[in-house]
Predict the structure.
Amino acid sequence: MNVTPKEKQIQVLKALVEGNSIRSTERMTGVHRDTIMRLLVRIGNKCQKVMDKRLREFHCKRIQADEIWTFVGKKESQLNKRERLNSDFGDQYIFVALDPDTKLIPLFVVGKRNRRTTTRFMRALQHKLNGNGRIQLTTDGFNSYLPAVEETFGADIDFAQLIKIFAADCVEARRYAPPKVTEVLSKVITGNPDHKHVSTSYVERQNLTMRMHIRRLTRLTNGFSKKLENLKAALSLHFIHYNFMRIHSTLRVTPAMEAGITDHIWGWDKLLAHKFN
């Protein structure tokens, strides 16, 4: 990896953020898959540090939060007793926070879909928004958000949940089709949120973007993550590319530029050269 030409490293990273698998990237670039994986982990860990440093104390009015499912190694139902004791294996959920005005994604958290991970997610969000003032938060109907938001923000937030009621459909032919939504309920939890902005549409659309541009999130393939570290590295690379390097079609700039965090589009040379100031 250390002797791979910079141009070849950029070619590999560009292929990965466009949704190519490790082996397809190997075939396209001629770089061995082990080298590709080491490069992904190194750059992914760097991207996480950049997000921790640059995406903090930013100003926003609203946040939408959601979770997207994936798995590491095996699906939860296939784990044996020993593997179930290791939280790095089995089903994993990616908790994502998104600013619907700038489309910026300030943070993500990976873990089990439980109260512990949800509380960690909310505490990380509070840290990112430190000094931002009161915001409006909208989540789905996952029950763990209630104690997590209460414990983290208390009454200093306008919090609402958008609860979707799905029709029961057990037809085998619709096994991989989304269930039909029969009703959508808006429930105010804390404060006085603006009902016009009680929505999770933007963050749910971001779930599709993630599945399209991160190969290991594509369903029904063998491109899933074998290690939790690799999954987190791939996510960090995706979100740095999304926030700082990719022009949003409706904004005409990157989300980070729209949020006032930077005034220019980041290039791959900057990412590889550790230059983030």
User: Anything to note?
Assistant: The domain at 6-272 is CATH 3.30.420.10 (Nucleotidyltransferase; domain 5).
